[in-house]
């Protein structure tokens, strides 16, 4: 297993390099379902007081109209991002009446696909495209998939970090090219060790039977409504959640920007027979999906991590990456923690920072086909049975127990945590490693184990547990302080976003078919 070299540790203890570690940027995207007091999916439209879901920078919806998404600006300190997230929750609770925000990744009580409204973004071409994309997801997978929630953690290392690393390693070429290569090195190591994040932070070992309706499954029954896997960590990330058999042919092991973007371009332009059978439009000319290809757009590729670049208006993500390189990475494998009001804690953020810095600094060989298969199997095994005593994974073809390997990874991440401690004059990063190490030593401390223990010890169903937790969090947010300036700013943003949507709708000058033709012509 790679470890941080003494040369790297020495480099980032020097003042100029150490300073760069104080400029890491963080952003958090957090999804939460709006649910009724009876834990049914809210049927109400997105509250107007929260602004336009098309143009509001911080409060929008994801796949379902009831699936709120909170987006923080980027901050140099994770606790600043969390404070912004708290403010968004406080403000939102003032405008959703007696509804509550569901605290679990797996959804509240669902009452059939007809009662899962797809998110609506207005009448503009861009708004309609967002809606049709989600219509396509519903037709390709199912609407229940559109009610799963999670946390996305955005992480960006400053240009000065990459410049110093490039000079240290004596590599030639443009900084943009080197930075993109560096992020892909990070991503490859993430792929190798992200099973540890699933073990430590997975919090969805159970779900309501209503999520599956009559679909076949191999889950066990905990009670009349609750299904679970005894040793599972994250059913959200399993084949019951955001995994697609159609995408199994996509071998994206992140060896470089060119191969990554080429794979996505091909998937977006390759017809797929089952989706052709669905059809592009219905008999009345309404779109069923954006196209009949393997992927409608890049976002349909479900991965635990994505290389990202902020796009310009109307620009395809794959084109932005090709033109300007990787700007940041998006970690997508994090469940909502129902025991945390925000779904994520500052300690968890500190661990993620150390883990991701380690992934960026450690050696990261290219991933061949054999290792790619091995990584996928390890990931799936921890998702479905990560807390099973004596569970083994495969490392370079050899079996190794989860506990032994997890302790070894944390030991290596400690070097990165130490660098972050020194740069930020704290012990918080090393302390976060100790907290996570305790979960490795005692699996009962993991969120997934705590959820099951809660259900079993209190004889609660998944839905009853969700109601109890959501009501506790609603009470705390309903009483939280939101000063006048913060409230006024969020009200201004809501009104401005509604006006921006109106202008966009008025300025549309081409029909939707032509708009789509122009959009896909970029690829």
From TrEMBL:
<dbReference type="GO" id="GO:0046872">
    <property type="term" value="F:metal ion binding"/>
</dbReference>
<keyword id="KW-0547">Nucleotide-binding</keyword>
<dbReference type="InterPro" id="IPR007370">
    <property type="entry name" value="Glu_cys_ligase"/>
</dbReference>
<dbReference type="GO" id="GO:0006750">
    <property type="term" value="P:glutathione biosynthetic process"/>
</dbReference>
<dbReference type="Pfam" id="PF04262">
    <property type="entry name" value="Glu_cys_ligase"/>
</dbReference>
<comment type="pathway">
    <text>Sulfur metabolism; glutathione biosynthesis; glutathione from L-cysteine and L-glutamate: step 1/2.</text>
</comment>
<feature type="domain" description="Glutamate--cysteine ligase">
    <location>
        <begin position="10"/>
        <end position="382"/>
    </location>
</feature>
<dbReference type="InterPro" id="IPR006334">
    <property type="entry name" value="Glut_cys_ligase"/>
</dbReference>
<keyword id="KW-0436">Ligase</keyword>
<comment type="similarity">
    <text>Belongs to the glutamate--cysteine ligase type 1 family. Type 1 subfamily.</text>
</comment>
<keyword id="KW-0067">ATP-binding</keyword>
<dbReference type="InterPro" id="IPR014746">
    <property type="entry name" value="Gln_synth/guanido_kin_cat_dom"/>
</dbReference>
<dbReference type="GO" id="GO:0005829">
    <property type="term" value="C:cytosol"/>
</dbReference>
<dbReference type="GO" id="GO:0005524">
    <property type="term" value="F:ATP binding"/>
</dbReference>
<keyword id="KW-0317">Glutathione biosynthesis</keyword>
<dbReference type="GO" id="GO:0004357">
    <property type="term" value="F:glutamate-cysteine ligase activity"/>
</dbReference>
<protein>
    <recommendedName>
        <fullName>Glutamate--cysteine ligase</fullName>
        <ecNumber>6.3.2.2</ecNumber>
    </recommendedName>
</protein>
């Amino acid at each position: 297993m790679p470890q941080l070299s003494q040369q790297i540790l020495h480099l980032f203890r020097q003042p100029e390099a150490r300073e760069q570690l104080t400029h890491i940027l963080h952003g958090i995207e957090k999804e939460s379902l709006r649910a009724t007091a009876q834990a049914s999916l809210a049927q109400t439209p997105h509250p107007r007081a929260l602004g336009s879901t098309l143009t509001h920078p911080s409060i929008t919806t994801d796949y379902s109209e009831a699936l709120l998404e909170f987006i923080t600006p980027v901050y140099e300190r994770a606790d600043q991002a969390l404070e912004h997230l708290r403010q968004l929750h406080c403000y939102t609770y003032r405008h959703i009446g007696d509804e509550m925000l569901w605290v679990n990744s797996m959804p509240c009580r669902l009452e059939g696909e007809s009662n899962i409204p797809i998110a609506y973004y207005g009448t503009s071409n861009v708004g309609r495209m967002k809606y049709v994309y989600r219509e396509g997801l519903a037709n390709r997978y199912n609407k229940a998939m559109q009610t799963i929630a999670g946390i996305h953690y955005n992480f960006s290392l400053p240009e000065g970090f990459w410049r110093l690393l490039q000079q240290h390693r004596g590599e030639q070429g443009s900084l943009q090219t080197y930075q993109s290569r560096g992020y892909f090195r990070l991503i490859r190591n993430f792929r190798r060790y992200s099973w540890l994040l699933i073990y430590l932070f997975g919090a969805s070992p159970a779900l309501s039977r209503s999520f599956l309706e009559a679909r076949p499954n191999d889950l066990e029954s905990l009670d009349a409504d609750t299904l679970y896997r005894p040793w599972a960590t994250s059913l959200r990330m399993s084949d019951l959640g955001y995994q697609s058999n159609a995408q199994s042919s996509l071998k994206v092991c992140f060896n470089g920007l060119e191969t990554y973007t080429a794979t996505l371009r091909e998937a977006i332009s390759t017809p797929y027979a089952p989706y052709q059978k669905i059809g592009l439009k219905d008999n009345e000319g309404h779109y069923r999906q954006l196209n009949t290809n393997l992927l409608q757009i890049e976002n349909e590729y479900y991965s635990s991590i994505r290389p990202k670049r902020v796009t310009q208006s109307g620009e395809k993500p794959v084109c932005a990456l090709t033109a300007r390189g990787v700007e940041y990475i998006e970690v997508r494998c994090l469940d909502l923690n129902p025991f945390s009001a925000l779904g994520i804690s500052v300690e968890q953020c500190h661990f993620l920072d150390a883990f991701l810095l380690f992934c960026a600094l450690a050696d990261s060989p290219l991933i061949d086909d054999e290792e790619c298969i091995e990584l996928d199997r390890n990931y799936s095994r921890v998702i479905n049975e990560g807390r099973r005593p004596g569970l083994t994974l495969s490392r370079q073809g050899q079996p190794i127990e989860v506990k032994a390997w997890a302790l070894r990874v944390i030991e290596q991440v400690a070097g990165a945590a130490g660098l972050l401690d020194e740069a930020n004059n704290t012990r918080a990063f090393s302390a976060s490693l100790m907290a996570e190490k305790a979960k490795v030593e005692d699996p009962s401390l993991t969120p997934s184990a705590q959820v099951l223990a809660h259900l079993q010890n209190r004889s609660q169903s998944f839905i009853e547990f969700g109601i109890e937790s959501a009501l506790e969090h609603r009470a705390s947010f309903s009483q939280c302080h939101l000063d006048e300036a913060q409230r006024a700013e969020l009200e201004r943003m809501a009104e401005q976003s509604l006006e921006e949507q109106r202008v966009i709708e008025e300025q549309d000058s081409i029909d939707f078919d032509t708009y789509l033709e122009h959009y896909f012509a970029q690829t």
